[in-house]
Amino acid sequence: xxxxxxxxxxxxxxxxxxxLPNPNPNPSSSPASLGFFAVATPPAPxxxxxxxxxxxxxxxxxxxxxxxACLRRLNPLLFxxxxxxxxxxxxxxxxxxxxxxxRDVFTSPxxxxxxxxxxxxxxxKWWESQGFFKPNFDRGGDPFVIPMPPANVxxxxxxxxxxxxxxxxxxIRYFRMKGRPALWIPGTxxxxxxxxxxxxxxxxxxGIKRADLTREEFTKRVWEWKEKYGSTITNQxxxxxxxxxxxxxxxxxxxxxxxxxxEAFIRLHEKGLIYxxxxxxxxxxxxxxxxxxxxxxxxEEPGYLYYMKYRVAGGSRDDFMTxxxxxxxxxxxxxxxxxxxxxxxxxxxxxxxxxVPLTFGRHVxxxxxxxxxxxxxxxxLKISPGHDQNDYHxxxxxxxxxxxxxxxxxxxxxxxxxxxxxxxxEAREKLWSDLVExxxxxxxxxYTLRVPRSQRGGEVIEPLxxxxxxxxxxxxxxxxxxxxxxxxxTILPERFEKIYNNWLTNIKDWCISRQLWWGHRIPVWYxxxxxxxxxxxxxxxxxxxxxxxxxxxxKSVEIYQxxxxxxxxxxxxxxxxxxxxxPDVSREDFKHFYPATVLETGHDILFFWVARMVMMGIEFxxxxxxxxxxxxxxxxxxxxxxxSKSLGNVIDPLDTMNEYGTDALRFTLCMGTxxxxxxxxxxxxxxxxxxxxxxxxxxxxxLQNLPERSDATAWDLLLANKVSx
Length: 725
Hints:
Residues 123-681 form the Aminoacyl-tRNA synthetase class Ia domain. It catalyses: tRNA(Val) + L-valine + ATP = L-valyl-tRNA(Val) + AMP + diphosphate. This protein is an alpha/beta fold. It contains 22 helices and 26 strands. Among the domains are: 289-463, Isoleucyl-tRNA Synthetase, domain 2 (Alpha-Beta Complex), CATH 3.90.740.10; 524-561, no CATH class; 645-670 and 680-706, no CATH class. The chain starts with 46 loop residues before the first helix and ends in a 6-residue tail after the last helix.
């Protein structure tokens, strides 16, 4: 299995910015642009052949060699198989002083001594205005379709955007030049948490808190912000030269996509795949919402390992077990003490009870479980299932109760007794001080912690039991696994198949609810005076919900909608088909362009986005949403370090394009190995800037040797021959 063939040409082959003489001046017949900033759109009869000829110029060896073979490759007149043209190649600079349009888009080679990338934005606007990025069915063929990963509406351009735009633009332009109807679907994501944070900060600058506004007032302010600033990332992606069809641009909160989201929720619920329950989730105390695994970043930070005594009930003063923990404040949520069954040190205590410190004598059982590592700490594990993922799974396996000691704002609740109302970190210090005072503290030693922090807010994430909506993933994952096994979906590079399979094989149910105001409201309505878990209706709108409720509970029933919104990734999972009109499968775009051909994105979101799109595509359309997944690596600095503001090593693509040109940046990014991280340096950019200028000169030589516009016989001869490639 292999991906559709990709060109060996650089992603932005720089060539002179003026047109070929056009024997067919009819602009309506012009096909899609070649797309490189330094190339004008060729006339219709020449588009495919000229594109192929230019692709033949790609290799550096073709440019640097001075052999006659090199000149033969550069001169299109020498592509003829067995006959000479009716005219002789000669310099024809005087024929190229005309511009491509009255807007003076392109410049003359006699004026420009080197490639002038300052004109890139003007060239792009001309391309777009001519409609060159729309799919063209004139030459037939199967469509080539790429759904663009939707950028966050709050985002600003970074090297990750530059990478996917570069690679996807190579693919879409190549197949467009091959004559296939090519569609690259652009769009943006509403980015629930990120956007709400931005607007809350804006309101705070005005002295307004979100709690001071109604939900409707707040969302109105968010829409106002979106209308004012939401196009920033789109314009920056255009600056990269992305040749996508902007007339089909989508936003995840558009009416059409919102309709698709509601329909998807209802269909999953009707199949019994969506349920509500209280489970352990990643909770952000500052944002006051559950967050996905992707929105949690782990960092190594200095901390402490606290050792404390748990006395054995009914034993002597010497009968105690020493436990090491990094979070002593969670001891109020302990429901058991566990040791490894093969650890002889504690075998005599298994089956007895231990007394949890500072809880006025609360007892918990001492159990044996193979999960416990005898080598970590003292080999004794406190089980706090309400505040640790591993403890949570042990408790569910063994049927242990679950205690939650934390409020949603990160303070301790009434279960903590005297420590109730204290901040979790403040309580940690106070608790340790009291343990020392009561002789239950053993020692405190430095320890490197792996701390989970919110990607958006930066605060420490708290594992917390919370009532949320979930999707049952196992049946969906099974079909996504089979798609790869049967060859319906190809993942490139192939090594990522193993990661994909491993994640889907061990998949957990997906928490899809978020405690936000910005996003797709969960289409669930509760009955006033009834229990939420048992009495609710799922509907497409409020009118339908009321009708369903009245049918079941009587005409006097009152209802209210669930205040939560859906995880942003839920709407993103529908992206390949919701952007084409689903659930209306009769739409022309859906019939022509679904399923897509390639999904290209970073390998870091293989699980969170790609796999979910595969599962949802199969579930709702009966087929995989794309045939190929092409994964690129991350962009690092010249020393191989991840770019971050704290390190001061972030390279801004906008600044880079202004200094080196978009072609040089794109060529640098596409030179890496598929799936591997790329180290980006100014030295490489400088070198590739010079290389793009070599392509400029090669193109200048090529175009200067073309026949005159009026030489119809010569053009007929040229068009009658196929370019070898």
